[in-house]
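Supplementary Methods, section 5.1.

A reviewer requested that the exact input to the structure prediction be made available. We therefore reproduce it here, unchanged from the version used in the analyses.
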Amino acid sequence: MNRRTSAIFGTLLLLLAPHFSSTIVSASSPIVLESLTLTTYLDGFILVSYKLTLNQTFPSVNVTLLGETHENLLVIDEQSLPLEYAIVNAEIIIYSLNASQIQISYSTSDLTMKTGKYWTLTAQVPTSTKVILPENASIISLNNVPELIESSNNQVTVVMPTGTIEITYITEHSLQQQTQDSTPWSLIVAVISFPLIACIAFALWSRKRKLPPQQKEIEQEVDVDKLFEREKYLRPEEVQVIHFLAEKHGTTFEAELYEMLNLPRTTTWRLLKRMEKMEIVDIRKSRRQNVVSIRKKYMKK
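The structure derived from this sequence is encoded token-by-token as follows.
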């Protein structure tokens, strides 16, 4: 009886082995990453684009995303229909039943860092990756030999191999434009603000004379000279934000900056996020509004 049972069990294992094998293989690789593209912009944001093919029978697939923030995230199938998803840490779970192709796109500023006038893009990629640099950008260094490098319409495209990508580049056009524009802008601001600063100084001096010692209020001042000495390659709109914050003693509401800059909200938000990444400002929530403040290291003691 034991021999007969063992024989039957062994026969069943032989019959079911091919089925188990195919299930394990398809489960280990339900998706194939066809392409990964990183399109960089002048303000340091990157548009990340994935193209994947997958097994239609799988109800969901998991994909690891680059970066910690994923703005304007879009997931669509081969018919350009949106797919439902959930994000857990840096991994996206896509409910992909019956879909044979998936495209994922989003914006992030987590992959770039600016040091002076130089930008550095760093990423760990699972496949050969196309990197499209901003217009008029020049490559300073590459950490690896590219598979392809080409230039078209003043824009450089590099295909980097699997692994760690590290590209340092400079946007020459924006640097030249900034050099030409920043001097007259600084002169205009200085001429316009001088009478205003003189009036404010006189008013504060008069107030100090009138108030008794116990009623004096100490307001912190922004050390503008120190800030501009450390950050020598600021854009005109960044300089404008710093001067406005200096007038507000280092802190203001984000809504006031929208009105002052007269720029679209998304453009202003990206500008402030870039300045936060450069460690010039802090952004915090206060009830339903964002409060923007100059970093403490740039405040006079």
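The chain has six helices and 17 strands. These observations are discussed further in the main text.
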